[in-house]
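User: Can you help me understand a structure? I only have the sequence.
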Amino acid sequence: MAKIEKFEDMEIWQIGKQIAVEAYRISDLEPMKSDFGLKDQFRRAAMSMADNVAEGFEYNNNPDFVRFLIYAKGSSGEFRNKVIILKETNKINETDYLFFYTKAIEFSLKTKRFIDYLKEFEKNKKATKKGIV
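Assistant: Let's start by predicting it. Here is the structure, written out as tokens:
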């Protein structure tokens, strides 16, 4: 895997950012626009995915990064839960629901794969240092 120089180059961050941008767009429309509590929670959940990827990356070490990727994956679940409830209460339409739901699933799956990769990398690095490999 090529070395990533900045979090903006990461596909998972780009997906998270895309979700957040669309969440801001849709929450500026009715019926969410005038429901300030819902609007705030929806935006925070959406932003949290990309925020955690960016923050974890900037710690510049894999164990901390993995921890923040786990938070980002958890935020994806929280956001997906909100999207399901918003769809069932007719606060978002089918098109927006499908976009958010599929993007959140994609984010979660790719984040999980990246977590697994980093954990394996760290495990191999430790084994190499101990002379096991």
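Now, to help you interpret it: The first helix runs from residue 11 to 27. The radius of gyration is 17 Å. Let me know which part you'd like to focus on.
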